[in-house]
Design a protein that fits this description.
Blueprint lengths: L1 H11 L2 H74 L7 H12 L11 H9 L8 H22 L4 H9 L2 H9 L3 E4 L10 E4 L8 H13 L1 H35 L1
Antiparallel strand pairs: 1-2
Length: about 260
C-alpha cells in the first residue's frame, strides 16, 4: 500500500509526500524488525527457562542418587570394619559375632555402580544455549560438575574392587546363597516419589543354621592374609568414596542454588 502511494507520488513529483511516505516506510520496517527481535528474544527466554527446569530436575535426581550411594557405601564400610575386627582380633569371635564377621566380610564386597550424568546439560551444551539458563558463574559450576568432578568421582569410586572377586572365591557357596536368599541386600522404591528406580540397602540378616560351616568359613578367613589385605584396601576405597560422594552432593546443591 505504502509502496504504491510512493510510486504514485514519484510520478507526480510530489517531493514532500514522497519524503513522508519514505519515512513511514522506514518506520514500518523498523517496527517490524523490532517486533521480530522481541518475539525471538521472548522465545529464547522461554526455551532457556525450559532448559533450566530440565537441568534442575537432573540435579535433583543426581542428588538423590548420590545420597543413595552414600548411604549404601557407608553401610558396606560399617560391615567391612566389623569383619576386619573379627578377622584381625587376637581371640576368635564367638557366638553371634561369628556370623557378624562372616556376613560383614561378604557385604564389604557389595557394590552399587553409579556414574554422574547430565543429559539435559549435554543437550543444552550441544545446542549452544548455556547462556540462556543462568549466570556465567552457574555455567562454570555446571561445566565443572559434569566435565571435571564427574570424572574424578568415578575414579575415586572405583570399578570392580579386587576384594569383591576374592571374597566370592573364598566364601562357601551355601553361605553366599543364604545371603542372597535372606535379602541381606534389600531393594525398594523411594517412598513418596513417582520416579522409577530402586534404592538398595545392606542390612543384617539371620544367620544360616549350619553353625559348623560358619565356624569353618570364619577360621579360613582369619588365616587368609591375602583376603585381609584386600579387605583393608577395600575399606580405604569405601572411606574415600563416602567422603567424595558427600562432597559431590554439596557440589550438586551448590550448582542448583546458582541456577535458582
Amino acid at each position: 500500500m505504502i509502496l504504491r502511494r510512493l510510486v504514485a507520488q514519484l510520478r507526480e513529483q510530489n517531493w514532500t509526500a514522497i519524503a513522508v511516505e519514505f519515512v513511514l516506510l522506514v518506520i514500518g520496517v523498523f517496527l517490524g524488525l523490532q517486533a521480530s527481535n522481541w518475539n525471538d528474544a521472548r522465545n529464547e527466554r522461554a526455551q532457556g527457562e525450559r532448559w533450566r527446569q530440565q537441568i534442575l530436575a537432573d540435579l535433583d535426581q543426581n542428588a538423590r542418587d548420590l545420597q543413595d550411594r552414600l548411604d549404601y557405601n557407608s553401610q558396606a564400610l560399617a560391615f567391612g570394619e566389623t569383619a576386619l575386627r573379627g578377622l584381625e582380633s587376637a581371640e576368635a569371635p564367638t557366638g553371634a559375632a561369628v556370623w557378624e564377621t562372616v556376613l560383614g566380610a561378604f557385604q564389604a564386597g557389595q557394590i552399587w555402580p553409579y556414574r554422574l550424568t547430565g543429559p539435559s546439560y549435554r543437550e543444552v551444551q550441544a545446542a549452544g544455549g548455556l547462556t540462556l539458563i543462568g549466570s556465567e558463574r552457574a555455567q562454570v559450576k555446571l561445566a565443572y560438575l559434569y566435565d571435571v568432578s564427574a570424572h574424578d568421582f568415578e575414579l575415586v569410586s572405583g570399578g570392580l574392587p579386587k576384594y569383591r572377586e576374592l571374597i566370592r572365591e573364598r566364601m562357601p557357596w551355601s553361605i553366599q546363597s543364604h545371603i542372597w536368599d535372606s535379602n541381606c541386600q534389600t531393594g525398594s522404591g523411594r517412598p513418596g516419589l513417582d520416579e522409577p528406580g530402586v534404592a538398595f540397602e545392606l542390612v543384617a540378616c539371620p544367620a544360616p543354621g549350619d553353625q559348623a560351616l560358619l565356624q569353618t568359613a570364619l577360621n579360613q578367613l582369619r588365616v587368609d592374609t591375602e583376603i585381609q589385605r584386600a579387605l583393608r584396601g577395600r575399606l580405604s576405597q569405601l572411606k574415600a568414596s563416602v567422603a567424595s560422594t558427600a562432597r559431590q552432593i554439596e557440589r550438586v546443591r551448590s550448582v542448583r542454588e546458582s541456577l535458582e
